[in-house]
Amino acid sequence: MADRPVPVVEKRLMDVKLGELGTWLGGRDFTPNGLIAALRKGHDRYYNKYINVKKGGFGGIAMLLAGYVALSYLWEYDHIKHDRWRKYH
Predict the structure, then answer these.
(1) Could you tell me the pTM of the whole model?
(2) Is 29 within 8 Å of 37 (Cβ atoms)?
């Protein structure tokens, strides 16, 4: 018996082809409750994959810290760039 095709709305983002992206985005729930549910689902997936494991390591926390460092650098980039071009004489 052949597998039935999965509707575009039920596919994951990585499984959606570029031509189907508009249809996939149209099927998302962009209400405040839908966005909160999506964030909660993403947090649960991250937590179960990297933090809540039997043989845990430093990998999940290191990834989180690296993301924080990258975001804080982006937030302060204008200030860093301004200091770089300032003349001190």
Answers:
(1) 0.55
(2) yes
